[in-house]
Amino acid sequence: MAYGLETQAVHGGRGGLGHAHVPPIDLSSTARIDDPAVGMASIDALAMGAAEADNPIYARLYNPTVARFEQALAALEGLPEAVAFGSGMAAISACLMAARARGDHVVAVRPVYGGTDHLLNDNPFGLAVTWVDAEGVHDALRPTTALVVVETPANPTLALVDIAEVVRAAGPVPVLVDNTFATPVLQRPAAQGAQLVVHSATKFIGGHGDVVAGVVATTAALAAPIRQMRIATGGLLHPFGAYLLHRGLQTLPLRVRAAQRNARLLAAALRTHPAVVALAYPELDPRWPTLSAQMAGPGSLMALDVGDAARAGAVLQAVRLCTPAVSLGSVDTLIQHPAGLTHRVLSEAARAAGGITPGLLRLSVGVESVADLRADLWQALDCALAGPG
Fold it and tell me: Taking Cα atoms as reference points, which of 315, 301, 365, 308 lies closest to residue 111?
């Protein structure tokens, strides 16, 4: 029987619990190996990237609590397998390292998260990178292209990419989509043909600002080499983090939709404030009537440009309810300055290419009273408009 998203979110990864109602946390760092033959066969299988084996051997190779979360997330993304990591950047790094076995070239569409952009430009894995807009993917391909990387809605400008069009342009080259902003509640890139779907699970998946993690949902063939990278580099997710993420999935649809309701109302209000030079929100994008077919809603992230860095700083100092902090997707509202924080590691040219202006603020709307959020942001924007004193 095919269950709905809400049911999958609650029940995914909970099979075989026996008498337990809540999935347990297995904190064992090692396992008994009573039969050496089973141990040898198991370590061979796990070292080759198998999802499981008769004996888990060691927590760097396999953990049942982590595996339950992976099964649940993979089901939500409509893909057969997932591989969880200690951070979103560890997940991205493993995907790039695994891709290196297929070729030495990556095509990437800006903007993406600043850490991803920096990693691609830093080139620690021997991968040449060609930056293009979404329409230029096909022309940028080489015989050695191993991966196409996109993020939609993009961090931090909320730029939208037509995933199906990128997949068509990429042909046989796997497409990786960072789905952190949308979550599987609002977007399933695999339904558009993407073969790798990445999340900074720190964000909406966890949803409460108390866990750092990353996860890649993908095909069985692509999952195996990614697991090998996790084993080799030790980028594993701790079982307690996996427990928190698995628990977070149960309320993911509720949290995402509640925050989205608030964001829609705030976007309509904030775009009228005289301090807001421009406001980016997927529903306001002129291509939304077309690209909304790949999304079930615009989400709860927006980017407002207040003109310059001084005004952006004034807003951050004036907010009282909203928290000035990096990260996103929590139940509380967060606001931050991408040019000065999450994308500060980029060159000025790279920020300009991604549309990251000095006055841009990224707002991650939470589930508080929307009237309270509007009042706080309005007074902060008033302060920025008034200037010093």
Answer: 301
Residues 6+ apart with CB under 8 A from 177: 150, 151, 152, 163, 189, 194, 196, 197, 198
Question: pLDDT tens for residues 128-141?
Answer: 999 999 999 999 99
In the chain, which residues fall in CATH 3.40.640.10? 5-249
CATH number of 252-386: 3.90.1150.10
Q: What does the alpha-carbon distance between residue 337 and residue 356 come to, in Å, rounded to a whole number?
A: 10
Query: What are the distances in angstroms from CA 138 to CA 37, 105, 272, 353?
Result: 49, 13, 39, 19
Angle value at C-alpha 238, between 199 and 207, nearest 5 degrees: 45
The label of the residue with tokens 């594993």 reads 236
Catalytic position from the list 14, 26, 58, 60: 60
Q: Is 311 known to be catalytic?
A: no
Q: Among this protein's residues, is 320 annotated catalytic?
A: no
- Could you say which of 62, 68, 110, 178 is catalytic? 178
At 389, is the pLDDT very low, low, confident or very high (cuts 50, 70, 90)?
A: low
| Residue whose structure tokens are 């407002």 | 304
Given the residues 68, 110, 188, 203, the one annotated as active site? 203
Which long-range contacts (C-beta less than 8 Å, at least 24 apart) are formed by 40-48?
A: 46/227, 46/231, 47/228, 47/231, 48/224, 48/228
Q: What is the pTM of this model?
A: 0.96
Domain(s) of CATH 3.90.1150.10: residues in the chain: 252-386
Catalytic one among 113, 162, 305, 362? 113
Four-way CATH pick for 5-249: 3.40.640.10, 3.30.450.20, 3.40.30.10, 3.90.930.1: 3.40.640.10
68-85: pLDDT as tens digits: 999 999 999 999 999 999
Conformational region of residue 79, where left means phi above 0, alpha means psi within -120 to 50, and beta covers everything else = beta
- Peptide bond connecting 111 to the previous residue in cis, omega within 30 degrees of 0: yes
Identify the burial level of 272 via C-beta atoms within 10 angstroms of its C-beta, where 0-12 means exposed, 13-18 middle and 19 or more buried: exposed
- 3 is annotated as an active-site residue: no
To the query of whether residue 178 is one of the catalytic residues in this protein, the response is yes
Tell me the C-alpha distance between 211 and 360, whole Å. Answer: 27
